[in-house]
Amino acid sequence: MTDTxxxxxxxxxxxxxxxxxxxxxxxxxxxxxxxxxxIWAQNIKxxxxxxFGTGVSNLxxxxxxxxxxxxxxxxxxxLDSDSVTQRTVTQPNSYDIAxxxxxxxxxxxxxxxxxxxxxxxxxxxxxxxPIFTTGKLTPESTIAQGTAxxxxxxxxxxxxxxxxxxxxxxxxxxxxxxxxxxLGIRPDLVGRPIGNWKDILDPKFKGKTxxxxxxxxxxxxxxxxxxxxxxxxxxxxxxxxxxEIDKTIAVLIEAKKGGQFRAFWKTFDESVNLMSxxxxxIQSMWSPAVTAVKSKGIPxxxxxxxxxxxxxxxxxxxGKNVKxxxxxAAYEYINWYLSGWCGAYLNRQGYYSACLSTAKQHMSPEEWxxxxxxxxxxxxxKSPDGKPIEKAGAVRDxxxxxxxxxKVACWNAVMxxxxxMVRKWNEFIAA
Amino acid sequence: MSVAAExxxxxxxxxxxPKRRRRAPPFAPYLQAMPLGLILGAFxxxxxxxxxxxxxxxxxxxxxxxxxxxxxxxETLGSWVTWSTLLNTLKFVAIVWAIxxxxxxxxAYFLAFHVRTSKMQTLLFLVCTVPFLTSNIIRMISWVxxxxxxxxxxxxxxxxxxxxxxxxxxxxSEFAVVLAMVHLYSLFMVTPIFNTLVRIDRSLIEAARDAxxxxxxxxxxxxxxxxxxxxxxxxxxxITLVLGDFITVRFMSGGQSASMGLMIANQISLLxxxxxxxxAVALLVLVLIMMAAILRIVDIRKEL
Lengths: 431, 304
Known about the structure:
The structure holds two protein chains of two kinds. Chain A has three domains: about 1-30, no CATH class; about 35-180 and about 310-360, D-Maltodextrin-Binding Protein, domain 2, CATH 3.40.190; about 185-305 and about 395-430, Periplasmic binding protein-like II (D-Maltodextrin-Binding Protein, domain 2, 3-Layer(aba) Sandwich). Helices cover about 40% and strands about 15% of the residues of chain A. Chain A has helices at about 1-30, 35-45, 60-70, 80-90, 100-110, 185-190, 215-230, 240-255, 270-275, 285-295, 325-335, 340-345, 355-360, 365-370, 400-405, 420-430, and strands spanning about 50-55, 75-80, 95-100, 115, 115-120, 155, 170, 175-180, 185, 210, 260-265, 280-285, 300-305, 310-320, 350-355, 380, 390, 410. Residues about 1-40 of chain A have low confidence and may be disordered. Chain B is an all-alpha fold. Helices cover about 75% and strands about 0% of the residues of chain B. The two termini of chain B are about 15 Å apart.
């Protein structure tokens, strides 16, 4: 009780100081508030956190659970990756929480649109999967090519705009969701085993393939394909030279002119429609899209390939202008995100969550064994909203967490030659 | 020019009669024109000026920097992509314009000359606008399940034994783009042409017939010349809409085809505003040239 009376007073004084010291004091002032939910219980209910991001993690179930567990409102907007990038930079006042991918972070953080977060206020920081802190899944793992998340996770201090090489106290994004991507196929229509990225160029599938038209991601898929087909040898797929970009785009243009592709997709739903309508039988895909096709009763496999996966990861960042009680709510939301329920929800969709230890407590042993350990399902596996998606005995495509995340060949990337790459990519689309 | 020349003497001849009311100060006309001027200035000239300015700025993957570089234009105009995209866009313009003109003229002709009562004309015209009760995008997207490989049309054709395998060109092709555009933009041609056709004095047609003209001669020498303003206005609508279109091209071609608008949209989404602005300026110049050409052929103001 004494705590509750004292702290608001302190805060009032602080608020006064804040007003007096104008903008300069804001960051320090809000940083000093170590928000206790009990104290703020009443005020925080009026808070609305505005979050936006790609469709993959803007899930209504999460907003509902936030309302139930934390009391405040989480308002979500889903956009495509390009719009997300654009909005993060150009409209920093239109959101509190940016749910962005790590390669987007590499682009937007240097603009100062987001504020770094103090890891001391992140309760489960120590339990975050090391991919995001040291870059290594296990101490022996090698770091994959591309924009590996740990390279853009830390900055030196609150005002810093350049990334730190080692873990520091200040994080740009709190990882929430990540996965290893590969090609999706229609096993009933491809008519032969698929084992390599280059299979997408097989003349047999002429006019029945698709890749995604988001340059930063599409170029990586293209690189996996070219490398697999033995057409190009890359120094670093995640940071190509102009010559490598030229060659990659030339391969794509040739395939396009030869009628290899049926369409290019930009949003999640487009990929689902292309696959479920049978327009396309092998294409770049995201895992929940595969689940979405399957839940329509159409066979679809997220095919593991010999060359490994292209991985991606997303996280929550806080807008630069967020302060006071909203900032407290934001930290609370982030701590809640890592506390297990949400992680279990995401794991059940086929993604991976950042704190596996907490998520495990919210999943049944059968679910954990199926999704994370790659074991045959002991019971029917249901999607988070209760729809059956796998029968007992089924095994997850690609196996366990270690098998999948351990075989990442590259991360979605922003290259030094980004501007050049985008121009060449546009040539491919226009060709 | 001719309009201004006509208006001036009219004002002078009117002058003596309402002499008392000519007390308005000399700047009154400017005051009267000010609201429109302000609106056009704030919402048309200012944004265009901003686009022109930004088109000279420098940029990297996240930010734009005030500068004066001509690199954006050099990249835009020096790249074969721009020219092939432009050519592609103009191809769409030509095809869609020709088809909508043909369809639009005959729909308007039917409404104006074959439907007798004006009540029925209005009713049928309203029927033409019914599709516009749904959004542009919905009307376009609804073609996708119809034209797809396993879509309604292909299933019907295959089952009826007309074609052995589904026709691939129906969807995600330039055919699909043109089809959707014709569907979306025909009404923009129908409306202005219908508007000019109904105002043609019927006695002119009777006179032509009395003078011995056959149906084709009446159409060619009487109706079409009188319908020219409507055709010009409809053409302006259709041409500018097709030139600026990006969403139809993207969805109906499945991202396989490009237009100037799509290129600009791509650049904007990649935060390359200066490049997008340079493209937009190039497109604007093109649109203005085409409009000037149309207005040179048909003096809309004189004929309305």
